[in-house]
Amino acid sequence: MSPVSVCAFCLLLLIEGVLSKQVCSKQDVLEYLNLTRGNEKFTTCRPALDWTKPTVVYFDIHLFCILSVIEKSQIFVPFLWMTARWNNDLILWDPEDFCGITDVVLPKEMLWLPDLFILEAIEKEEGPQNPYLTITYDGNVTMEDDHKIISTCALNVHKFPFDTQTCHITVFSVNHSDREIKLVPASNSTKATQMARDILLTQGEWELLNISISNQYMLYEGQSFQTLKYTISIRRMPLMHFINFQLPVLIFLILDLASFFIPDRPEKLSFKVTVLLAMSVLLLVLNDILPSKSHKCPLIAAYVISIFCFMFLSLLETILEVYLLQLISEQDTKVVQSPEDHNSEAAVCKGECSDGIFSSKVESQETYSKEKVNDVHLLQRILGELQTIKHALVPHSVEGKTRQNQWLRLVTWFNRGFFVVYLISVSIFLGLIIQEWEFE
After folding, report:
1. What is the pLDDT of residues 289-304, one digit of tens each?
2. Exposure b/e, 143-172, CB count within 10 A at least 16 = b
3. Using an 8 Å Cβ cutoff, are 125 and 148 in contact?
4. Burial class (CB in 10 A: 0-12, 13-18, 19+), 104
C-alpha cells in the first residue's frame, strides 16, 4: 500500500470518528427552523407556501366510552380520542444533519392549528387537555387529545326501552372554507367501528352498533364549508328497565285479573283500589324517565296508561257489582219484612176469628142451650183458618226468593262476562304492544 493510500485511509477514519462523536438535540432542530414562541410566521397564517392549495387535515375519532345518554334533556355524552394530522410547508429538515432526529414534540401555541369545532357541543369542555403536538422532518404535524363531549342528540324514545339511538358528532372549521381546509377521514366506517369496539372501556346501559363517517358541505354567507360527520348508532340494553318497571306493571295487571276470584266483594273492591294506587306511583316514575316532549307517543307510556285504564274499568265494574248486590240485599230485606206484616195481620185476623167463634159459641149456648158443641169441631175450624192464612202468605215469599235468585244470577253472569272480555282485551293489547316493540 502506498503512503498516499495510507494517509487517505487514516483521514477517513478520523472523519468518521469525529462524526460518530457528534452530539445533537431537538433544540438544535427548533433553532434551525427558527421555531420559537414569539415567531408569528408559524402561528398567524395557514402554513401553505401556495395559498391556492388547501391544507388537507386527516381527522380521526376513537370512541373510548359512552358516559351517559339523558332522555329527559336529549343529551349524549361520549368520551372521545381525537387525532388531527396535516402538513406544514414551513417545517422541513434533514434527519442526517441532526443525528437521525425525525420528530420533535413541542407546545401547541408554537404552531398554527386548524380551528376545528364540534357542531353538536352545547357546553365548553372543562379539564386538562394535551398541551403538546408532534412534528416530523417532512412537515407532518399530529395533534392528539381526549375530549368529553356534551352534545345534543335528537333521541327517539318511541320504543323505549327497546330503542336504538343515532347521535352525530359533526366536525368543521369555522373560519376556513373548503378552499382553505379540506377534511379527510383518516379511517373508514368499518375501521372506526372495529377500533371503537376494541378499545371501548365502558358502555353503561348502551351497546355500540356501528360508526359511520360521511363528508358533507354547508353554505354560509356565500361560502362552502366542509364538515366531517360521525354517526354513532347505539342500542339500549333493556334488561334492568324491564325488571324494574315493565315487570311490576305486568304483575299489577295479573293481580287485578286474579282479584276477580276474591269471593268477598268489599275486600275485592279495596284490593283493586290499592293496586290502582300502586300503578299511579309507577306513572310518576315514568314521567321522570321520559322527555316532556316527543314527536311520537312512547310505547311504554301507551303500555302503562292502557293497563291503568283497564284496571280503572275493572274497578268501576266491581263498584257496580257491589251496588247491585246491595240493591238485591235491600229487596230481600223488604221481602223478609212483608211476611211478618202478613203474620201480624193473620194474628189479628186469628184473634178476631177466635173472638167470633167464641162469641158464636156463647150465642149458640144461649140460643141452643140444650145442644153441646163438640171441642174437636172447634179445633178443626181454627186449623182451617190457619191453613187459609198460610196459603195466602207462601206465594209471596216464594215469588220474592225467585226474583232475588234471578238478580243474583244476572250479576254473576255479568261479572263472568266482563272477566272474559277483560281477559281477551288485555291479551290482544299485550300481543299488539309486543309486536310494535319488536317489529316497528
Report:
1. 776 666 678 888 899 9
2. bebebebbbebebebbbbbbbebbbbbbbb
3. yes
4. buried
> Which residues lie across from 77 on neighbouring strands?
68
Instruction: Write phi, then psi, for 347 (nearest 5 degrees).
Output: -65, -40
Quick check: 230 and 195 in contact, CB under 8 A?
A: no
Which ranges constitute the DSSP H helices of 164-298?
189-199, 239-241, 247-258, 265-289
In this predicted model, what pLDDT tens digit does every residue of 226-269 receive, in sequence order? 999 999 999 998 888 888 888 999 999 999 999 998 887 788 88
The predicted structure's pLDDT at residue 332: 59
The rounded distance, in Å, linking the Cα atoms of 5 and 17 is 18
pLDDT in tens, 157-168: 888 888 899 999
Residue type, 414: F
398: left (phi over 0), alpha (psi -120 to 50) or beta: alpha
349 burial (CB, 10 Å; 0-12 / 13-18 / 19+) is middle
CA distances in angstroms from 191 to 52, 171, 196, listed in the order given? 32, 19, 8
User: What DSSP string runs through 124-135?
Assistant: ---S----EEEE
Query: Could you give the count of Cα atoms lying within 13 Å of 92 in the half-sphere of its Cβ?
Result: 6
Return the residue matching grid coordinates 399530529. Answer: 142
**Cβ 233 vs Cβ 211: under 8 Å:** yes
- Rounded to 5 degrees, φ, ψ at 146 are -105, 145
d(CA 434, CA 197): 30
Chain centre distance of CA 196: 25
- Structural domains in the chain, CATH included, are 24-237 (2.70.170.10), 277-439 (no CATH)
Q: Is 65 helix (H, G, I), strand (E, B) or coil?
A: strand
> Which cell is 298 given?
312512547
